[in-house]
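User: Hey, quick favor. My workstation is busy. Could you predict this chain's structure for me?
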Amino acid sequence: MMQMIVVAAAAIGLIVFVSFVAARLVRSRTAGMSIRMQIFLALALIVGAFAFGLGLMVLDRIKARADLVGRAAALGEAQAVAALVSADMESTGASLEQVAERLVKYEHRADLDLSLSDAQGKVVFASGRPPGEAGTVTADAPVLLQNREVGRVRVVKPTLVIQNTLADFAPTVLVISLLLGAVAAGAAVLIGRTIGAPIEELTRYAGRVSEGDRRAPPPPGHGREVMLLTRAIDSMRRELQGKPFVETFAADLSHELKNPVAAIRASAEVLRDGALDDPEAGARFVGNILESTSRIEALLGDLLSLARLEARGVEEAATVDLGKEAEAALARQPDLTLEIHGNVTVRGDRAWLTRAIENLVENARLHGEGGPVRVRIWREGDDVCCEVQNRGRVKRGVEKRIFRRFVTTRADRGGTGLGLAIVRAIAEAHGGQATCVRLGPPDVAFQISLPAA
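Assistant: No problem, here it is.
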């Protein structure tokens, strides 16, 4: 019963293992085969082949040893019977045929698996299993009379017991092979994790750098190769802060300034061409100039704030009660709810932290779909979290770039695309982070997490 349970468990384990490998291989056809899977398959095949070959070798050696022991026993019995036949012939003077006739009388009394043949090979007596039957071994011994061979005795020995033993031992070999395969799988998982985890961390780090998060520290490296790769990627990050970054920043800035500058030029040309003679038209175009100028001033002001924060960081850090600062900054905000839970003191710059909360609220009003704005500040472990939630959704294609400079979907409402970039810079300057925790619909929520004081 126990053997059947072991065999059934081994068979189920083998089916599960093969199904797992097959599913991963099917997925690798579209996503590519990971390093972990390659190591897993290599070790599984090597150890599996070794275990299978070892099992076959053990079974073959046991069978060979069983055959050898059976032949030795058959030879000993054949020699003993041949000696008895020779002694009987010498003492009684009987012929080989007469001895065979006497053996027939005793055949029903003993379980004899032997045959007796004369010098010409003619069988004069045969009993029991015939030679060559499956699961048997045979051995011959000569019948000597005065040193002359007058016949041969052939004894047949069954090896079915040994074969049954081998059949019983086969499931054990299968279980051992599966256990070795499981150990190899576990070793492959550990080795793959040791190799793959640093690469995955570096990949995520490179992704954050490509999205503009150039202040993020590189992950710690373990092992000479990983440390060299980490240094190379970190060196690339520092290079991105140089000339390539300046070129990209200049291109983005010129793109953002192009529309308001073009509006100012067009309005000025219209005024020059005679619109000043019409007070109503002149006032409208002057209003366009003032609106475009205000947009440029807001853009340059946000850029100056962002550059100052990224270059100098937090210059005057003090203990700040984030809840009280939020209450003071949002006291006159319409259609807004503020919830504060627990001790929410942090260490940082009061003005910058207030600016981050105001930017999140302004972003919610600018990009939301109406309805109340909810601000919630609470303590979570060693961090203080501030979440601003509103009804709406983040458009597809923007969610991965939403904290980058000049990314806005509301330029028509005065958005500069720098509000969330400033929020992220403030959070990182204070040792925290800014994330979009819900993309909507129905609700969009942005959250900053800062180390608690």
